[in-house]
Amino acid sequence: MVAIYYILALIAWLIGAIFLLPLSLKKKYRSAIPARFFLFNNPKFKDAKVHFHACSYGEIQALTPIMRKFEDKAISVVTHTGFEAAKKISQNSRFLPFEIFLPFWLKKSKILVIFEAELWLMLVFVAKLNGSRVILINARISDRSYARYKKFSFFYATIFRYIDQVYAQSDLDKERLMSLGAKDIKVAGNVKSAFASQPGKIYKKPKERVIVLASTHEGEEKMLLENLKLSKNDKLVIAPRHPERFASVGEFVKEWSHKHGFEFDKFSQNGNFNRQITLLDTLGELVNVYAISDVVVLGGSFVSGIGGHNPIECANFNPILVSGEHVFNQKALFRLVSGVKFIKTNELNDVLSLYKERARIINKADITVIIDDIRSSYEQ
């Protein structure tokens, strides 16, 4: 099975390389594609006892409190934003290469810790071949993903053959993982709920009500602004999910602001919230803004296909928390938060006028068992 998979991956790479080269010229992929698919500026790790692997920025942020407990570590990621976040934790950070390179690139560690759904066959196979212990933490399978996983259950059964321990988010996730062939599963709760997010900077809370449109996607800014009536006692912060959209969202919001007589500014230019509308166009600042927010409207949930975003980080600061109804990827996390108001966009004004309940986290995971597991291998 592994040999056949490797051959198919090699064929896919040979065909796909033609299309990947021009794609790598785009700003979004300029670092990740050359590093992952051509090993450009992506050397092997330095020797490390524990190797953490996660996909992107959000996953690295969630893993950070665990990773900081281990000095001798390596971190691999998939996305550019994830890489930038990982480098702040350890210089021994790399992009995870495409699977055909892993037999020659991956170095032995005492333990490989994989976060959530990063299930790459060659990664776990080569790690086990090198003598590493492999654990999967924060494992979950959403309603939408489960049907797709079941169609390829034979493939996932092969992957789970090389994973020694699985820590699932819930009993339902445990059942689904077992049906796909996972063994030695423990329910540990959601890692993202275990650590209270703390602001890295403290900003003075404006006297006005602070409304944050957080982690918005294409089309959501327009939908929400069309259904939002700001008063002189409101300040609005707009935080697009992806940095490559900062410029285009900035142009749109600037035009909208001028049309409606609001002062507009970019946070990257002045670093404050003095204007009535501010575009948060700097990574790593959203948690600092949550700390001074009164209302958070969580994006990725008003358009179909995204599935919502993690509500835990903002709920930690107890704002009024508003979400769209499309949260199929985050149902497990929303069950850990009380007071969330789910709405359609045309209900936004009424909710901001009438809804007063504050969100709060009602079930924080105890992940001591995960840390102890990693440490037992780390100290051998």
Topology of this structure?
Layout: H1 2-23, H2 32-38, E1 50-53, H3 57-67, E2 73-77, H4 80-87, E3 93-95, H5 102-105, E4 111-115, H6 121-129, E5 133-139, H7 143-151, H8 153-160, E6 165-168, H9 171-179, E7 185-187, E8 209-216, H10 220-226, E9 234-240, H11 246-259, E10 264-266, H12 267-270, E11 277-279, H13 286-290, E12 295-298, H14 312-315, E13 320-323, H15 331-334, E14 337-338, E15 341-342, H16 348-354, E16 360-361, H17 368-378
Helix pairs in contact: 3-4
Mean pLDDT, to the nearest integer, reads 93
Which strand order spans the largest sheet, edge to edge or round the barrel? 3-2-1-4-5-6-7
CATH class wording of the largest domain: Alpha Beta
Low-confidence stretches: none
Which class of secondary structure composition applies to the elements? alpha/beta
Can you identify the CATH superfamily of the largest domain?
3-Deoxy-D-manno-octulosonic-acid transferase, N-terminal domain
The biggest sheet amounts to: 7 strands, parallel
What is the rounded distance between the termini?
32 Å
State the helix count.
17
Overall 3D form: globular
CATH architecture of the largest domain: 3-Layer(aba) Sandwich
Strand content: 15-25%
Transmembrane segments: 6-25
Catalytic activity: lipid IVA (E. coli) + CMP-3-deoxy-beta-D-manno-octulosonate = alpha-Kdo-(2->6)-lipid IVA (E. coli) + CMP + H(+)
Site (Transition state stabilizer): 116, 192
EC number: 2.4.99.12
